[in-house]
Input
Amino acid sequence: MQTVLFRDLGRMDYKAAWDFQTAVHTQLVTGKLQRRHEPATNTTPPHELIFVEHAPVFTLGKSGSMAHLLLDERDLAARGIQFYPINRGGDITFHGPGQIVGYPILDLEYFFTDVHRYVRNLEEIVIRTLADFGVVGSRIPSYTGVWIETPPNRDLESAEAVFFSQKRKICAIGVHLSRWVSLHGFAFNINTDLRYFDYIIPCGIQDEDKRVTSLARELGRFVEPESVKSRLKIHFADLFSCNLQEAVPQTIPAHHE
Output
């Protein structure tokens, strides 16, 4: 059973978090290459699971289209939103306050070498966490991420009824693998201001029957983030058959350009 270091970075600028996870990823890949030229040992790599909350930012995956960003540079600056094209899969998405972003940085050769299974596991972690809050999450064929297809179990205003009659994406997933070491991860909307998604075509999906939602909107109340994080950690450890261990702050690697 592998040990995965858990680290909650709190609120962090996207670029700083990107540099940080890249440093962890580089450390894993470098150590892996070094071990291939050394006698067999029982040393296990320092896998990590990172939680972070970002300031408002749009990120565009390598297969995405700039046409799906509906603001120009001046509009972005006026609204205090950053923008980064990055090396994960997928199209454009939003990260910001009220969202739990999870970056599992794992050497999958110590778990399983199956990209589809890896993405399904990330989806399943969120689906099980939603179930803990009485919400039914699901998958939609041909789309990654986690969706909700049933209305909430409460009385709805007429405008709400229209929204909740649609398929609603609550978690976006985009990953990148190098030598089977994972990078990037999932963005789970908890108390997220959903108006930010009006400035993009989320994940490039333009279907009329699909929207973006949050756990708070589904439940009709504010959700304590720590309660969600604790359930995510439990399901992560279960699905990846690993021990989660709190990371020592001093082990944060420095990343140099």
